[in-house]
Every structure is written in structure tokens, then in C-alpha cells.
Design goal:
Length: 163
């Protein structure tokens, strides 16, 4: 038997002013995207913004549906949109923000498990780490890679078999 240990590190910023300018503006885009969220059932408005290596920023927001499971999170709406619109581009960073009852959440909103799985596959396809920036009213956290949020991602299907 072998015992193994994982370590992750992440950065915590007290405010947007402390963030590198590129990340601050991406987080701003994610915050603006919360206004385009459609969340009549949860009243939890999430926005995501993805920076691509071609300089484009693609935004998404959660879109709910009366058949609840048919809705989609902000992060997946953004990465699927980016993948569909710019298939060759690498995703360099994603920022996430959320508002509840109109107010920015007090704590960061981390991508859910399904979104982490979707994002990690785009990260692997791109071959470069995707920075994850999660904002809130009290602090901003930055992870260097989606893998820091999902170290044991499902990755066992051989893509060449699937095409
Ligand atoms: N949601 C997101 O869009 N992203 C997350 O990271 C967590 C949850 C959405 C799904 C649903 O529309 C609402 O927030 C409440 O769960």
C-alpha cells in the first residue's frame, strides 16, 4: 500500500484592484453577464467569461427551464458557446461571478462538478492551463488550472475511437 497526497495552491485577492488587469476585466465581463442570466426558479444569477488565445472574450450565463434539469450553468453555456463559435481557439482563463437577489454573492461561486468536467476537457484539448477566477463581494480566488478543482477528471475514452 502506498499513501499519496495532493496539494493545491490558489491565490486569494481582497479586491478587484489587486488583480492583474487582464483578470480584473475578465471578471468584470463575468459580472456583467450575470445580468443576462435567466434564472426565474433559483433567482441565482451566474455569469462566466472565457478569454481565448485569439483575444476574444466569450460570455455565458445560466439559463434555466421549467423542466429543471434542462437548464444549463453559466460556465458550460460559455465554454460550449466558445467551442462552437471558435473551434480552434484555446481557452486561457475563465472568470465566474454570481448575484443572489441582485447582490454579488458574499463568497465565490465555484463551478459545479459537471462544469469542471466540461472545462477540464477544453483545457486538455487546448494543451495549456486554463486559469479559473472566481469572484465575490468579499474576495477573489484564482486557480492556475481547472485540474486544481478537478484533479481526478474522467478521461478514459479514447477520442480516436469516438470520431
Ligand atoms: N449555476 C451556475 O450557473 N454555475 C455554477 O457554478 C453553479 C450553479 C446555476 C445553475 C442554476 O441555474 C442556478 O445556478 C442554481 O443552482
Amino acid at each position: 500500500m502506498q499513501k499519496k497526497q495532493l496539494n493545491i495552491s490558489y491565490q486569494v485577492y481582497q479586491s478587484k484592484d489587486e488583480l492583474p488587469a487582464e483578470w480584473a476585466s475578465l471578471l468584470q465581463r463575468a459580472t456583467e453577464a450575470t445580468e443576462r442570466s435567466y434564472a426565474p426558479y433559483s433567482n441565482f444569477n451566474v455569469g462566466a467569461a472565457i478569454l481565448l488565445d485569439n483575444g476574444e472574450v466569450v460570455c455565458g450565463s445560466n439559463q434555466e427551464n421549467a423542466a429543471y434539469p434542462s437548464g444549463l450553468c453559466a460556465e458550460r453555456s460559455a465554454c460550449y458557446y466558445a467551442g462552437a463559435a471558435f473551434p480552434g481557439a484555446r481557452m486561457l482563463a475563465i472568470a465566474v461571478a454570481a448575484r443572489q437577489d441582485g447582490k454579488l454573492t458574499e463568497t465565490p461561486t465555484y463551478p459545479c462538478g459537471a462544469c469542471r468536467q466540461a472545462l477540464v476537457q477544453y483545457e486538455n484539448r487546448g494543451g495549456v492551463p486554463m486559469t479559473v477566477i472566481v469572484g465575490s463581494a468579499t474576495r477573489i480566488e484564482v486557480f492556475d488550472s481547472v485540474k486544481d478543482l478537478l484533479p481526478f477528471a474522467f478521461d478514459n475514452l479514447d477520442e480516436s475511437v469516438m470520431i
